[in-house]
Amino acid sequence: MTPVDLLRAPGIGPVLRWRHTRTVLQALCLAVAALLILDGLFGPQVAPRNLAGVLPWVHWRGFVVLALLVAGNLFCMACPFMLPRRIAKRFGPANRPWPAPLRSKWLAVGILLLFFWAYEAYALWASPWLTAWVAGTYFTLAFVIDGFFRGASFCRFVCPIGQFNFVNGMVSPTEVRVRDPEVCGRCETHDCIRGRYASPPKADWSGRPLRPDASGRLALAGAASGRAMGREGLLQGGCELALYQPRKTGNLDCTFCMECIHACPHDNVGIFTRSPLADLTTDPVRSGVGRLSRRPDLAALALLLTFGAFVNAFGMVEPVFVLQDQVSALLGLTSRPLLILLFMVTGIVLLPLVLVAATAAASRALAPGTDTLVGRTTRYAWGLVPLGFGMWTAHYLYHLLIGGLTIVPVVQEYLGELGLPAGSPAWGLGPMVPESWLLPVELFFLQGGLLVSLVALYRIARSEAPTKRTGVRAFLPWAILATLLSGAGIWLLMQPMEMRGTFFV
Ligand code: SF4
Ligand code: SF4
Q: Which bound ligand lies closest to the C-alpha atom of 155?
Protein backbone atom coordinates (compact mmCIF):
# COMPACT_ATOMS: atom_id res chain seq x y z
CA MET A 1 0.00 0.00 0.00
CA THR A 2 1.39 3.43 -0.95
CA PRO A 3 2.18 5.46 2.19
CA VAL A 4 0.07 8.58 2.62
CA ASP A 5 1.66 11.74 4.00
CA LEU A 6 -0.92 13.01 6.49
CA LEU A 7 0.65 16.49 6.44
CA ARG A 8 -0.41 16.75 2.80
CA ALA A 9 -3.81 15.11 3.23
CA PRO A 10 -6.83 17.38 2.75
CA GLY A 11 -8.55 18.41 5.99
CA ILE A 12 -6.17 16.95 8.56
CA GLY A 13 -2.97 18.20 6.81
CA PRO A 14 -3.43 21.96 7.44
CA VAL A 15 -4.44 21.26 11.06
CA LEU A 16 -1.31 19.19 11.69
CA ARG A 17 0.95 21.65 9.84
CA TRP A 18 -0.26 24.67 11.80
CA ARG A 19 2.62 25.40 14.16
CA HIS A 20 0.35 26.11 17.14
CA THR A 21 -1.75 22.94 16.96
CA ARG A 22 0.37 21.20 19.52
CA THR A 23 0.38 24.16 21.91
CA VAL A 24 -3.41 24.43 21.73
CA LEU A 25 -3.79 20.69 22.47
CA GLN A 26 -1.30 20.93 25.34
CA ALA A 27 -3.05 23.97 26.81
CA LEU A 28 -6.41 22.15 26.70
CA CYS A 29 -4.92 19.07 28.38
CA LEU A 30 -3.17 21.26 30.97
CA ALA A 31 -6.47 22.97 31.84
CA VAL A 32 -8.20 19.60 32.24
CA ALA A 33 -5.28 18.30 34.34
CA ALA A 34 -5.49 21.37 36.62
CA LEU A 35 -9.24 20.83 37.15
CA LEU A 36 -8.60 17.15 37.82
CA ILE A 37 -5.95 17.91 40.46
CA LEU A 38 -8.19 20.48 42.15
CA ASP A 39 -11.17 18.12 42.24
CA GLY A 40 -8.92 15.26 43.42
CA LEU A 41 -7.61 17.34 46.32
CA PHE A 42 -10.77 19.20 47.33
CA GLY A 43 -13.71 17.38 45.71
CA PRO A 44 -15.76 14.41 46.95
CA GLN A 45 -13.52 11.47 47.82
CA VAL A 46 -15.73 8.94 46.03
CA ALA A 47 -13.94 7.93 42.81
CA PRO A 48 -16.98 7.73 40.47
CA ARG A 49 -18.04 11.23 41.61
CA ASN A 50 -14.69 12.91 41.14
CA LEU A 51 -12.87 14.04 37.97
CA ALA A 52 -9.67 12.48 39.34
CA GLY A 53 -11.45 9.15 39.84
CA VAL A 54 -13.01 9.09 36.39
CA LEU A 55 -10.97 10.99 33.79
CA PRO A 56 -7.58 9.29 34.14
CA TRP A 57 -8.72 5.75 34.90
CA VAL A 58 -11.80 5.50 32.67
CA HIS A 59 -11.41 7.96 29.80
CA TRP A 60 -7.79 8.93 29.32
CA ARG A 61 -6.44 5.35 29.27
CA GLY A 62 -9.13 4.27 26.81
CA PHE A 63 -8.44 7.20 24.47
CA VAL A 64 -4.66 6.65 24.66
CA VAL A 65 -4.91 3.06 23.40
CA LEU A 66 -7.47 4.00 20.76
CA ALA A 67 -5.22 6.83 19.52
CA LEU A 68 -2.20 4.50 19.38
CA LEU A 69 -4.26 1.95 17.50
CA VAL A 70 -5.75 4.18 14.81
CA ALA A 71 -3.34 7.14 14.62
CA GLY A 72 -0.15 7.32 16.68
CA ASN A 73 1.40 8.76 19.82
CA LEU A 74 -1.18 11.55 20.17
CA PHE A 75 -0.92 11.68 23.96
CA CYS A 76 2.76 12.71 23.91
CA MET A 77 1.88 15.22 21.18
CA ALA A 78 -0.76 16.80 23.45
CA CYS A 79 1.07 16.10 26.71
CA PRO A 80 0.07 18.62 29.42
CA PHE A 81 3.49 18.32 31.10
CA MET A 82 5.09 20.03 28.10
CA LEU A 83 4.01 23.61 28.86
CA PRO A 84 5.45 23.74 32.41
CA ARG A 85 8.49 21.93 31.04
CA ARG A 86 8.95 24.63 28.40
CA ILE A 87 8.90 27.27 31.13
CA ALA A 88 11.50 25.25 33.07
CA LYS A 89 13.69 25.13 29.94
CA ARG A 90 13.45 28.88 29.51
CA PHE A 91 14.23 29.84 33.08
CA GLY A 92 16.24 26.88 34.39
CA PRO A 93 19.86 26.10 33.47
CA ALA A 94 18.71 23.08 31.38
CA ASN A 95 22.30 22.49 30.30
CA ARG A 96 23.45 19.45 32.26
CA PRO A 97 23.89 16.20 30.34
CA TRP A 98 21.73 13.34 31.62
CA PRO A 99 24.00 11.09 33.77
CA ALA A 100 25.68 8.47 31.59
CA PRO A 101 24.76 5.46 33.86
CA LEU A 102 21.08 6.40 33.48
CA ARG A 103 21.11 6.65 29.67
CA SER A 104 19.08 3.51 29.12
CA LYS A 105 15.56 2.32 29.83
CA TRP A 106 16.42 0.50 33.07
CA LEU A 107 15.35 3.46 35.20
CA ALA A 108 12.02 3.61 33.33
CA VAL A 109 11.59 -0.17 33.83
CA GLY A 110 12.04 0.37 37.58
CA ILE A 111 9.59 3.30 37.66
CA LEU A 112 6.98 1.32 35.73
CA LEU A 113 7.33 -1.58 38.17
CA LEU A 114 6.92 0.85 41.05
CA PHE A 115 3.82 2.32 39.42
CA PHE A 116 2.21 -1.10 38.76
CA TRP A 117 2.79 -2.01 42.40
CA ALA A 118 1.55 1.31 43.83
CA TYR A 119 -1.55 1.23 41.59
CA GLU A 120 -2.68 -2.06 43.14
CA ALA A 121 -1.21 -1.70 46.62
CA TYR A 122 -2.81 1.70 47.27
CA ALA A 123 -5.83 1.31 44.96
CA LEU A 124 -4.99 4.52 43.11
CA TRP A 125 -8.11 4.25 40.92
CA ALA A 126 -10.27 4.44 44.06
CA SER A 127 -8.58 7.47 45.61
CA PRO A 128 -9.04 10.88 43.90
CA TRP A 129 -6.70 12.40 46.48
CA LEU A 130 -3.83 10.01 45.69
CA THR A 131 -4.49 10.35 41.95
CA ALA A 132 -4.18 14.13 42.25
CA TRP A 133 -0.89 13.71 44.11
CA VAL A 134 0.46 11.33 41.46
CA ALA A 135 -0.45 13.88 38.75
CA GLY A 136 1.11 16.73 40.74
CA THR A 137 4.29 14.71 41.35
CA TYR A 138 4.48 14.05 37.62
CA PHE A 139 4.32 17.75 36.81
CA THR A 140 6.98 18.52 39.42
CA LEU A 141 9.34 15.81 38.15
CA ALA A 142 8.99 16.91 34.51
CA PHE A 143 9.58 20.53 35.57
CA VAL A 144 12.63 19.83 37.72
CA ILE A 145 14.31 17.27 35.48
CA ASP A 146 13.94 19.22 32.26
CA GLY A 147 14.75 22.51 33.96
CA PHE A 148 18.04 21.01 35.03
CA PHE A 149 19.05 18.62 32.24
CA ARG A 150 19.25 19.42 28.55
CA GLY A 151 17.09 17.84 25.84
CA ALA A 152 14.00 15.80 26.63
CA SER A 153 15.59 13.72 29.39
CA PHE A 154 12.30 13.29 31.24
CA CYS A 155 10.44 11.96 28.18
CA ARG A 156 13.28 9.74 27.04
CA PHE A 157 14.55 8.20 30.26
CA VAL A 158 11.97 8.71 33.02
CA CYS A 159 8.33 9.12 31.99
CA PRO A 160 6.47 5.79 32.34
CA ILE A 161 3.56 7.05 30.23
CA GLY A 162 6.00 7.97 27.48
CA GLN A 163 7.55 4.48 27.60
CA PHE A 164 4.08 2.92 27.32
CA ASN A 165 3.40 5.07 24.25
CA PHE A 166 6.83 4.47 22.67
CA VAL A 167 6.59 0.68 22.94
CA ASN A 168 2.93 0.31 21.98
CA GLY A 169 3.34 3.02 19.33
CA MET A 170 5.50 0.47 17.50
CA VAL A 171 2.23 -1.01 16.19
CA SER A 172 0.70 2.37 15.31
CA PRO A 173 -0.16 2.92 11.66
CA THR A 174 1.80 6.20 11.26
CA GLU A 175 5.34 7.48 11.77
CA VAL A 176 7.28 10.75 11.41
CA ARG A 177 9.95 10.34 8.70
CA VAL A 178 11.69 12.04 5.81
CA ARG A 179 9.95 12.47 2.48
CA ASP A 180 13.01 12.16 0.27
CA PRO A 181 16.30 10.76 1.63
CA GLU A 182 18.21 12.38 -1.26
CA VAL A 183 17.22 15.84 -0.01
CA CYS A 184 18.78 14.94 3.36
CA GLY A 185 21.90 13.80 1.52
CA ARG A 186 22.31 17.30 0.10
CA CYS A 187 21.28 19.05 3.34
CA GLU A 188 23.92 21.33 4.84
CA THR A 189 22.29 22.42 8.09
CA HIS A 190 20.57 19.35 9.61
CA ASP A 191 18.15 21.63 11.42
CA CYS A 192 15.84 18.68 12.17
CA ILE A 193 18.25 17.63 14.93
CA ARG A 194 20.24 20.71 15.85
CA GLY A 195 17.44 23.31 15.52
CA ARG A 196 17.26 26.43 13.37
CA TYR A 197 19.34 29.45 14.38
CA ALA A 198 19.33 33.09 13.37
CA SER A 199 23.04 32.61 12.61
CA PRO A 200 25.25 29.51 12.96
CA PRO A 201 25.66 28.69 16.67
CA LYS A 202 29.15 29.25 18.01
CA ALA A 203 28.93 27.18 21.19
CA ASP A 204 27.25 24.05 22.49
CA TRP A 205 24.99 23.82 25.57
CA SER A 206 27.91 23.82 27.97
CA GLY A 207 29.38 26.93 26.36
CA ARG A 208 32.25 25.05 24.66
CA PRO A 209 33.08 26.74 21.35
CA LEU A 210 32.24 24.74 18.24
CA ARG A 211 35.07 24.06 15.82
CA PRO A 212 34.46 23.92 12.08
CA ASP A 213 34.09 20.43 10.58
CA ALA A 214 36.33 19.08 7.79
CA SER A 215 34.55 21.20 5.19
CA GLY A 216 34.84 24.30 7.32
CA ARG A 217 31.18 24.45 8.33
CA LEU A 218 30.77 25.57 11.88
CA ALA A 219 27.05 24.84 12.11
CA LEU A 220 27.46 21.17 11.33
CA ALA A 221 30.32 20.49 13.65
CA GLY A 222 28.24 20.12 16.79
CA ALA A 223 25.41 18.17 15.18
CA ALA A 224 27.82 15.78 13.48
CA SER A 225 29.66 15.06 16.72
CA GLY A 226 26.42 14.61 18.63
CA ARG A 227 27.01 17.68 20.76
CA ALA A 228 23.86 19.56 21.63
CA MET A 229 23.87 23.21 20.55
CA GLY A 230 23.36 26.23 22.78
CA ARG A 231 20.10 28.19 22.87
CA GLU A 232 21.45 31.56 21.84
CA GLY A 233 19.79 32.69 18.62
CA LEU A 234 17.65 29.54 18.47
CA LEU A 235 14.57 30.16 16.30
CA GLN A 236 13.14 26.65 16.21
CA GLY A 237 14.23 23.67 18.30
CA GLY A 238 15.28 20.39 16.69
CA CYS A 239 14.63 16.87 17.97
CA GLU A 240 15.22 16.81 21.72
CA LEU A 241 14.92 13.04 21.72
CA ALA A 242 18.13 12.74 19.65
CA LEU A 243 16.36 11.23 16.63
CA TYR A 244 18.18 12.34 13.47
CA GLN A 245 15.65 12.17 10.64
CA PRO A 246 17.80 10.63 7.90
CA ARG A 247 18.61 7.73 10.23
CA LYS A 248 15.39 7.59 12.24
CA THR A 249 13.45 4.32 12.04
CA GLY A 250 10.04 3.74 13.57
CA ASN A 251 8.27 5.23 16.55
CA LEU A 252 10.53 4.31 19.48
CA ASP A 253 11.30 7.45 21.50
CA CYS A 254 9.30 9.69 19.13
CA THR A 255 6.87 11.96 20.95
CA PHE A 256 5.26 13.22 17.72
CA CYS A 257 6.29 16.68 18.91
CA MET A 258 6.64 17.91 15.28
CA GLU A 259 9.75 19.99 16.06
CA CYS A 260 11.67 18.29 13.24
CA ILE A 261 8.81 19.05 10.85
CA HIS A 262 8.90 22.75 11.65
CA ALA A 263 12.71 22.88 11.79
CA CYS A 264 13.52 21.26 8.44
CA PRO A 265 14.26 24.12 5.99
CA HIS A 266 13.47 21.85 3.02
CA ASP A 267 9.98 20.80 4.15
CA ASN A 268 11.28 17.25 3.96
CA VAL A 269 9.63 15.64 6.99
CA GLY A 270 6.12 14.17 6.93
CA ILE A 271 3.82 11.94 8.95
CA PHE A 272 3.36 8.79 6.87
CA THR A 273 1.01 5.84 7.09
CA ARG A 274 2.79 2.49 7.30
CA SER A 275 2.36 -1.19 8.10
CA PRO A 276 2.02 -1.76 11.87
CA LEU A 277 4.46 -4.67 11.44
CA ALA A 278 7.30 -2.67 9.90
CA ASP A 279 8.74 -1.37 13.16
CA LEU A 280 8.71 -4.66 15.06
CA THR A 281 10.18 -7.03 12.54
CA THR A 282 13.18 -5.11 11.21
CA ASP A 283 16.42 -4.44 13.09
CA PRO A 284 18.34 -1.60 11.45
CA VAL A 285 20.60 0.80 13.37
CA ARG A 286 18.04 3.36 14.60
CA SER A 287 19.04 6.92 15.31
CA GLY A 288 19.08 7.56 19.06
CA VAL A 289 18.28 3.90 19.78
CA GLY A 290 20.75 1.65 17.95
CA ARG A 291 19.83 -1.94 17.07
CA LEU A 292 16.92 -3.39 19.05
CA SER A 293 18.73 -6.73 19.23
CA ARG A 294 21.59 -5.03 21.13
CA ARG A 295 19.34 -3.35 23.72
CA PRO A 296 18.37 -5.74 26.55
CA ASP A 297 16.97 -2.72 28.45
CA LEU A 298 14.50 -2.02 25.64
CA ALA A 299 13.57 -5.70 25.40
CA ALA A 300 12.97 -5.74 29.18
CA LEU A 301 10.69 -2.72 28.76
CA ALA A 302 8.78 -4.43 25.95
CA LEU A 303 8.39 -7.63 28.00
CA LEU A 304 7.37 -5.72 31.13
CA LEU A 305 4.64 -3.93 29.20
CA THR A 306 3.51 -7.19 27.56
CA PHE A 307 3.28 -9.21 30.78
CA GLY A 308 2.15 -6.11 32.68
CA ALA A 309 -0.97 -6.01 30.51
CA PHE A 310 -2.03 -9.40 31.84
CA VAL A 311 -0.97 -8.82 35.45
CA ASN A 312 -2.78 -5.46 35.50
CA ALA A 313 -6.03 -7.13 34.43
CA PHE A 314 -5.30 -10.05 36.78
CA GLY A 315 -5.59 -7.67 39.74
CA MET A 316 -9.24 -6.93 38.90
CA VAL A 317 -10.88 -10.33 38.73
CA GLU A 318 -12.70 -12.13 41.49
CA PRO A 319 -10.71 -15.41 41.66
CA VAL A 320 -7.59 -13.34 42.31
CA PHE A 321 -9.15 -11.68 45.34
CA VAL A 322 -9.86 -15.16 46.73
CA LEU A 323 -6.27 -16.22 45.98
CA GLN A 324 -4.92 -13.09 47.67
CA ASP A 325 -6.96 -13.87 50.79
CA GLN A 326 -5.68 -17.46 50.84
CA VAL A 327 -2.01 -16.41 50.42
CA SER A 328 -2.46 -13.71 53.04
CA ALA A 329 -3.89 -16.26 55.53
CA LEU A 330 -1.25 -18.87 54.68
CA LEU A 331 1.72 -16.52 55.15
CA GLY A 332 0.15 -14.44 57.87
CA LEU A 333 0.64 -11.33 55.72
CA THR A 334 -1.65 -8.56 56.89
CA SER A 335 -0.03 -5.70 54.99
CA ARG A 336 -1.70 -5.18 51.58
CA PRO A 337 1.36 -3.41 50.05
CA LEU A 338 3.53 -6.40 51.00
CA LEU A 339 1.02 -8.89 49.67
CA ILE A 340 0.79 -6.99 46.37
CA LEU A 341 4.58 -6.81 46.23
CA LEU A 342 4.70 -10.59 46.51
CA PHE A 343 2.15 -11.00 43.70
CA MET A 344 3.92 -8.41 41.53
CA VAL A 345 7.38 -9.88 41.91
CA THR A 346 5.99 -13.31 41.08
CA GLY A 347 3.68 -12.29 38.24
CA ILE A 348 5.57 -9.53 36.53
CA VAL A 349 9.23 -10.45 37.17
CA LEU A 350 9.84 -14.11 38.08
CA LEU A 351 7.18 -15.80 35.96
CA PRO A 352 8.01 -13.80 32.80
CA LEU A 353 11.73 -14.45 33.36
CA VAL A 354 11.17 -18.20 33.60
CA LEU A 355 8.71 -18.34 30.69
CA VAL A 356 10.78 -16.17 28.35
CA ALA A 357 14.08 -17.88 29.23
CA ALA A 358 12.50 -21.32 28.65
CA THR A 359 11.03 -20.14 25.34
CA ALA A 360 14.33 -18.64 24.14
CA ALA A 361 16.18 -21.81 25.20
CA ALA A 362 13.68 -24.01 23.33
CA SER A 363 13.95 -21.77 20.26
CA ARG A 364 17.74 -22.04 20.32
CA ALA A 365 17.62 -25.79 20.86
CA LEU A 366 15.30 -26.25 17.85
CA ALA A 367 17.13 -23.73 15.66
CA PRO A 368 20.68 -23.21 16.94
CA GLY A 369 22.43 -20.00 15.96
CA THR A 370 25.39 -17.89 16.97
CA ASP A 371 23.24 -15.76 19.30
CA THR A 372 23.08 -16.08 23.09
CA LEU A 373 19.98 -16.71 25.20
CA VAL A 374 19.77 -12.96 25.91
CA GLY A 375 20.32 -12.18 22.22
CA ARG A 376 17.49 -14.50 21.16
CA THR A 377 15.22 -12.89 23.75
CA THR A 378 16.04 -9.31 22.81
CA ARG A 379 15.26 -10.04 19.16
CA TYR A 380 11.97 -11.90 19.68
CA ALA A 381 10.58 -9.89 22.62
CA TRP A 382 9.28 -7.30 20.15
CA GLY A 383 7.07 -9.90 18.50
CA LEU A 384 5.03 -10.13 21.72
CA VAL A 385 4.29 -6.39 21.84
CA PRO A 386 1.08 -6.56 19.71
CA LEU A 387 -0.33 -9.22 22.04
CA GLY A 388 0.38 -7.06 25.09
CA PHE A 389 -1.10 -4.06 23.32
CA GLY A 390 -4.19 -6.13 22.43
CA MET A 391 -4.63 -6.96 26.12
CA TRP A 392 -4.16 -3.33 27.22
CA THR A 393 -6.69 -2.26 24.59
CA ALA A 394 -9.23 -4.90 25.65
CA HIS A 395 -8.83 -3.93 29.32
CA TYR A 396 -8.91 -0.16 28.91
CA LEU A 397 -11.77 -0.24 26.42
CA TYR A 398 -13.74 -2.31 28.92
CA HIS A 399 -13.50 0.54 31.43
CA LEU A 400 -14.24 3.19 28.81
CA LEU A 401 -17.25 1.37 27.40
CA ILE A 402 -18.71 0.40 30.78
CA GLY A 403 -18.19 3.79 32.42
CA GLY A 404 -17.64 6.40 29.70
CA LEU A 405 -20.85 8.33 30.36
CA THR A 406 -20.06 8.71 34.06
CA ILE A 407 -18.29 11.91 33.05
CA VAL A 408 -21.68 13.61 32.46
CA PRO A 409 -22.94 13.56 36.08
CA VAL A 410 -19.43 14.19 37.43
CA VAL A 411 -19.14 17.38 35.34
CA GLN A 412 -22.71 18.36 36.28
CA GLU A 413 -21.86 18.06 39.95
CA TYR A 414 -18.56 19.91 39.50
CA LEU A 415 -20.26 22.81 37.72
CA GLY A 416 -23.01 22.81 40.35
CA GLU A 417 -20.39 23.19 43.09
CA LEU A 418 -19.01 26.20 41.22
CA GLY A 419 -22.52 27.69 41.22
CA LEU A 420 -23.02 27.18 37.47
CA PRO A 421 -26.35 25.88 36.11
CA ALA A 422 -25.87 22.24 35.03
CA GLY A 423 -29.03 20.46 36.17
CA SER A 424 -29.14 17.69 38.74
CA PRO A 425 -26.44 15.04 38.13
CA ALA A 426 -27.69 12.04 36.15
CA TRP A 427 -25.96 9.40 38.29
CA GLY A 428 -27.70 6.60 36.40
CA LEU A 429 -25.48 7.25 33.36
CA GLY A 430 -22.47 4.99 32.84
CA PRO A 431 -22.25 2.40 30.06
CA MET A 432 -21.70 3.55 26.48
CA VAL A 433 -22.76 0.21 24.94
CA PRO A 434 -24.96 -2.73 26.04
CA GLU A 435 -23.13 -4.99 28.49
CA SER A 436 -23.46 -7.96 26.10
CA TRP A 437 -21.10 -6.20 23.67
CA LEU A 438 -18.19 -5.99 26.08
CA LEU A 439 -16.78 -9.51 25.91
CA PRO A 440 -16.88 -9.77 22.09
CA VAL A 441 -15.16 -6.37 21.80
CA GLU A 442 -12.47 -7.37 24.32
CA LEU A 443 -11.87 -10.74 22.66
CA PHE A 444 -11.65 -9.06 19.26
CA PHE A 445 -8.74 -6.87 20.38
CA LEU A 446 -6.99 -9.62 22.33
CA GLN A 447 -7.18 -12.09 19.45
CA GLY A 448 -6.26 -9.39 16.95
CA GLY A 449 -3.15 -8.77 19.05
CA LEU A 450 -2.34 -12.49 19.06
CA LEU A 451 -2.68 -12.69 15.29
CA VAL A 452 -0.37 -9.71 14.69
CA SER A 453 2.10 -11.12 17.23
CA LEU A 454 2.21 -14.48 15.47
CA VAL A 455 2.88 -12.81 12.11
CA ALA A 456 5.54 -10.54 13.66
CA LEU A 457 7.26 -13.45 15.43
CA TYR A 458 7.27 -15.48 12.22
CA ARG A 459 8.77 -12.60 10.24
CA ILE A 460 11.46 -12.09 12.90
CA ALA A 461 12.24 -15.80 12.76
CA ARG A 462 12.44 -15.77 8.95
CA SER A 463 14.69 -12.73 8.94
CA GLU A 464 17.08 -14.38 11.40
CA ALA A 465 17.13 -17.99 10.19
CA PRO A 466 19.10 -19.16 7.15
CA THR A 467 16.29 -21.44 5.87
CA LYS A 468 12.52 -21.52 6.06
CA ARG A 469 12.68 -24.77 8.03
CA THR A 470 14.93 -23.39 10.77
CA GLY A 471 12.84 -20.23 10.79
CA VAL A 472 9.71 -22.24 11.56
CA ARG A 473 11.54 -24.17 14.28
CA ALA A 474 12.82 -20.97 15.91
CA PHE A 475 9.33 -19.47 15.72
CA LEU A 476 7.38 -22.39 17.26
CA PRO A 477 8.27 -21.91 20.97
CA TRP A 478 7.47 -18.19 20.73
CA ALA A 479 4.16 -18.98 19.03
CA ILE A 480 3.33 -21.37 21.88
CA LEU A 481 4.20 -18.71 24.49
CA ALA A 482 2.03 -16.11 22.72
CA THR A 483 -0.89 -18.55 22.44
CA LEU A 484 -0.62 -19.50 26.14
CA LEU A 485 -0.61 -15.84 27.14
CA SER A 486 -3.61 -15.17 24.95
CA GLY A 487 -5.39 -18.16 26.58
CA ALA A 488 -4.68 -16.63 29.99
CA GLY A 489 -6.08 -13.36 28.66
CA ILE A 490 -9.30 -15.03 27.49
CA TRP A 491 -9.73 -16.60 30.93
CA LEU A 492 -9.16 -13.22 32.59
CA LEU A 493 -11.65 -11.41 30.37
CA MET A 494 -14.30 -14.03 31.11
CA GLN A 495 -14.08 -13.47 34.86
CA PRO A 496 -16.32 -10.98 36.67
CA MET A 497 -14.34 -7.71 36.72
CA GLU A 498 -14.31 -4.88 39.22
CA MET A 499 -16.18 -1.78 37.92
CA ARG A 500 -13.41 0.73 38.64
CA GLY A 501 -14.39 4.38 38.28
CA THR A 502 -18.01 3.49 37.61
CA PHE A 503 -21.01 4.27 39.75
CA PHE A 504 -24.50 2.90 39.34
CA VAL A 505 -27.46 3.87 41.53
S1 SF4 B 1 15.14 16.23 7.51
FE2 SF4 B 1 15.49 18.29 6.68
S3 SF4 B 1 16.93 19.26 8.11
FE4 SF4 B 1 16.99 17.04 8.51
S5 SF4 B 1 18.69 16.30 7.27
FE6 SF4 B 1 16.81 16.02 6.06
S7 SF4 B 1 16.65 17.88 4.84
FE8 SF4 B 1 18.13 18.33 6.47
S1 SF4 C 1 11.40 16.07 16.72
FE2 SF4 C 1 11.99 13.98 17.29
S3 SF4 C 1 10.44 13.32 18.78
FE4 SF4 C 1 9.64 15.13 17.72
S5 SF4 C 1 8.40 14.30 16.03
FE6 SF4 C 1 10.46 14.71 15.24
S7 SF4 C 1 11.53 12.75 15.48
FE8 SF4 C 1 9.72 12.64 16.77
A: 2
**Any residues with CB less than 8 A from the CB of 505 and at least 6 apart, and which?**
427, 428
- Residue 122's alpha-carbon distances to 58, 252, 332, 348, 500, in angstroms, are 18, 31, 20, 18, 14
pLDDT digits (tens, 9 = 90+) for 430-439: 889 998 999 9
What are the tens digits of pLDDT across the range 131-180? 999 999 999 999 999 999 988 999 999 999 999 999 999 999 999 999 99
Spatial separation of the C-alpha atoms in residues 130 and 10, rounded to whole Å: 44
pLDDT of residue 94: 81
Q: Give, in degrees to the nearest 5, the angle at Cα 285 between 279 and 290.
A: 95
- Our answer on whether the CB atom of 292 is closer than 6 Å to any ligand 1 atom is no
Determine how β-strand 234-236 pairs with β-strand 196-197: antiparallel
Say what angle helices 351-366 and 373-380 make with each other, to 10 degrees.
100
Torsion of CA 350, 354, 359, 365, to 10 degrees: 150
Residue 5, pLDDT > 60, answer yes
Helices (H), 172-268: 181-186, 191-194, 218-224, 259-263
CA distances from 302 to 73, 344, 352 (A): 16, 17, 12
Q: Using the Cα atoms of residue 150, residue 154, residue 158 and residue 163 in order, give the sign of their dihedral.
A: negative
Residues 193, 268 contacting (CB under 8 angstroms): no
75 CA from centroid of ligand 2 (Å) = 14
* Ligand positioned closest to the Cα atom of 191: 1
C-alpha 246/C-alpha 232 separation (Å) is 25
Q: What is the pTM of this model?
A: 0.91
Enumerate the H helices of 258-295 as residue ranges.
259-263, 278-281
- Residue 398 to residue 55: CA distance in whole angstroms: 14
Which atom of ligand 2 has the smallest separation from the CA of 261?
A: 6
